[in-house]
Structures are given as C-alpha cells and as structure tokens.
Amino acid sequence: MELAPKVPIPEQAPVIEKVPEVPMTGLETLWLQIGGTLCNLACTHCFISCHPKNDTIPFMTLEQTRWRLEESKRLNVKDYYITGGEVFLNPEIFEILEAILEYGPCTILTNGLLLTPKRVERLVEIQNKAAHEMHFRVSLDSLDEKENDAIRGENCFRLALQGMANLSKAGFSTHLTMVRSWDDEEDAIWEKKALAFMKEHHVPEPQVKFLPGFLMGELARTERGYHENERVTEKCFENYPITNLQCSSSRMATSQGVYVCPILVEEPSAKMGDTLEETMRPFPLGHPACYTCRISGMTCKS
Ligand code: SF4
Ligand code: SF4
C-alpha cells in the first residue's frame, strides 16, 4: 500500500495570539439606549448605522427603563448616560428622564435638532423638581457649516446651534462632541477652536469632547473597515492598564438586552445577557473596535 505523502511540518507553528479579557471591576455607569437605532439623521460616519428607518433596536420604554434602574440601584451604579439613535424621538423621553433623575445624574447625548424652546421648557421643569442633575452633549462634526452638513445633512448645523442656544438660554451648559477628523496631536488646537466657537455662541461653561471614528456601520461603508492586523493582543496592555477601558466599569442596556458597551450594540457577540447581574463578568476584546479604544484611550463618558 502506498503511503500518503507527508504534509510538511512548518518549522515554527503559527502563533495564535490570546484575546485579552477586560475584567468587570464594578458597575459605575449605566448606558441606556433610549433612542434605539432610530435617528432623525443619517450621518455618513454613524458607527451604529442609525437612520430614520432603522428600528432594528426599538426605543426603550418607560417600564423597561424603570426595571433597569431598580436593577442598577442594587449594583450601586453612580451615573447614567442616555443615547440612541436620537433620544428625543422617544415618545416617553420626559417621563424616562424624570425616572432616571430619581436614581442619579444623567448625561443626555443628542444631535440637538429637536431641542425646541417647548421641549427645553419641559426639561427645565423636570430639572427643577429633580434630585440629580442632567447634562447635555450635542454633536457636530465640524465648526464649519458646509463641512458639518456634508456629513450630517442639510441644515443640521443651524438647527443644532439653535438647540444649543435654547439650552443656554435655559441655563444648561453643553458639551460639544465631535468625531476627530484630524491627527490626535492636533487635539489642543481643536479644543481651543471649539471652546472659542461655543463662547461665541454664548454657551455657559462650555466643554468639548473628541471621539475617534470607529470603522464600523456607515463609516465602514463610506471610508474603510478594519484591517486584519487591527486587533488588540495581550501585548497592547503591557504598559496600559486594561481597566482604563470603559467596559471595565460600565454596560449598555437596550430594549433587547444588555451589551458590553455603547459601541458594540449591533454585534450579537457583544450581548452579555438579559439582566445586568449576568453581565458582571469579564469580556473578551476580540472586536476590532477594541483596537480603536486602546489606541485612542477612548471613553464614551464625559
Ligand atoms: S451619528 Fe448620531 S446623529 Fe448621526 S445618525 Fe448616528 S446616532 Fe444619529
Ligand atoms: S469596543 Fe471599546 S468599550 Fe467596547 S468592548 Fe471593546 S474596548 Fe471595550
């Protein structure tokens, strides 16, 4: 009988890099995807593919929010962030805000377009009766109207500024959020420019937050996706504490369960459970977006 030819054994077996796991050190922050994946905009760089017809993840209801809040209290959560999509599309947004502010401070992420004087008046009423403070983060993508609207859509610049002005008139301060379209080294220059811009627009106590672009969702379609070598390995954390990552102390609750973080809500493998308690365990950083978090030192928090 003829023997099958031997398969040559490579001199060195390929090194399979172990995926590092981020520990859960205690749930400090709870994100709530109140707006689901529905948004009144369809920005060309949205990393969650949100748009006016994307109801893949529906709004969170008041009842679902209350349930999560009770759960979060048992786990000693200190603060809350709400996001979407666009949170002000949720028909129960005001009741939801009242409920959250019974438990802790709440940061509201919004594109600012729906912050009409009438809605802001209601927000003032809620704030005046609340035990905790609400904070706002309004997003723009450029300080130039044309450049911003090329990414976010016609009139978005003007309407977001109007929303910010309505907040300012009511005494709320605003964080301006921008996705970086410049090199990290230029952050200081952009911070100066953005703060001056907000002062010009009479924002009290203005602050800015820059976010990296995650090469997923719309951005992956309009720019590029991640290359194969863009992954975190254990080596990445030799000189960088893994607990600096926000996923070591926060989780993202949606109407369809609890995810590791706000960035990966469209990734089935990032769903960690149906209750917060179930998600109090380490998470393997196998997604390429984790690479962006690591190299940019990114946190979604203010
Ligand atoms: S980036 Fe924000 S405002 Fe733009 S589509 Fe996505 S969720 Fe909506
Ligand atoms: S994308 Fe960022 S926040 Fe989310 S699991 Fe990866 S490292 Fe953590």
TrEMBL record:
The cross-references to InterPro entries, in alphabetical order and at most eight, read: Aldolase_TIM (IPR013785), Radical_SAM_PqqE_MftC-like (IPR050377), rSAM (IPR007197), rSAM_sf (IPR058240)
User: What GO terms are given for molecular function?
Assistant: catalytic activity; iron-sulfur cluster binding; metal ion binding
Q: Which domain of life is it from?
A: Bacteria
Presence of the UniProt keyword S-adenosyl-L-methionine in the record: yes
Record SUPFAM superfamilies: Radical SAM enzymes
So where does this one cross the membrane? Answer: none
Q: What is this protein called?
A: Radical SAM domain protein
Source taxonomy: Bacteria, Pseudomonadati, Nitrospinota/Tectimicrobiota group, Nitrospinota, Nitrospinia
